[in-house]
Fold:
Amino acid sequence: MTTSRNAAPFEAQTLSSAGHIPVMLAEVLAALRPADGQTYVDATFGAGGYTRAILEAADCKVLALDRDPSAISAAAPLIAEFTGRLDVIEARFATIAEIVRNRLAATPGANSIAFPSPDGVVFDIGVSSMQLDEAERGFSFQTDGPLDMRMGQAAGALSEGAGPSAADVINETPESDLADIFYQLGEERRSRAIAAAIVRRRAEQPFSRTRDLASVVAAVPGTHRPDGKHPATRVFQALRIWVNDELGELARGLLAAEAILSPGGRLVVVTFHSLEDRIVKRFMAERSGRTTGTSRHLPSGGVAKREPSFRLVNSKSLSPSKEETATNPRSRSARLRWVERTAAPPWDEDFAAFDLPDVLALR
Ligand SMILES: C[S@@+](CC[C@H](N)C(=O)[O-])C[C@H]1O[C@@H](n2cnc3c(N)ncnc32)[C@H](O)[C@@H]1O
Structure:
């Protein structure tokens, strides 16, 4: 028998010591329903805001992951505070299933905590305030820094699979592919003109700084935005998504959650822009039988309706409250969706179901 405790009210949300305000925390807890004796995976540890709230809400365990080495090194005090209930591992979404299975096999009392099959998996997709605000990480056009943007690169440490930096991409990608990246991942209407300007400039001098790229983009006619946002906003968004393979990672993370969750366990996802939300929405609708999910592996070679692997708890997404967006403007575009795992086997790992942007095929 497990008991649920109350979700923290919005007023209880505080800036973590590392400077990141957890987004939609009360709503995430209400969707995840932490309960005593259960196990949760926080796939995006960040500053540990969700992890802390889950551990405080119930006498449960959390296995937290992050691809950013600096998020992992900052986790030590929280691990000490919740000895035996929290482990934090540097990893990408692509390896969640493998990590959880290894932990299932771990012997209690050995170096690592043994985790039973998770009763909940939470994703808070995107970048943390620490990553955005630290100029040296190269995510920002507001403050000058090296053109890097890799979440897996911090303070000289490069995590496995961190891949090329934003400067590598800007300096080496063919013009038409750059334009496709800006158009498909940033919805930038001036993508072709911007790509042409970048290619002209890099022939004389390669790009190495964020401000330099931002000013070349801003000099392209037609990039100034009626909403007053910086002309390079969409290009920077597209580059960040590309450099970190954020959409491919999200798809792999959702598949991993489906593979590891216990029946009745919940998958809770917070996204920050429409490309991500669309992937989550499609996956949840398909896996819960709202759209025609099919198996291509019937003995007859035919197509059959699959048994839903998830149950849709709420068909609409939730947005942050007015109070939250007033206090934390970065929460403005957040969307929360959640589903509950059924006892049906996981579906085939079919990436076509996600309808990812074509440009990802270039990776
Ligand atoms: C928005 S922050 C999470 C904040 C956290 N919920 C909190 O309350 O402090 C997102 C975090 O996810 C991590 N992340 C993003 N994509 C990832 C991936 N594919 N694999 C693992 N971690 C990832 C980032 O490094 C970042 O630290």
Summary: The chain has 14 helices and eleven strands. Residues 16, 20, 22, 44, 46-50, 65-68, 71, 92-93, 124, 126-128, 151, 249 surround S-adenosylmethionine (CB under 6 Å). The chain has a mean pLDDT of 89.
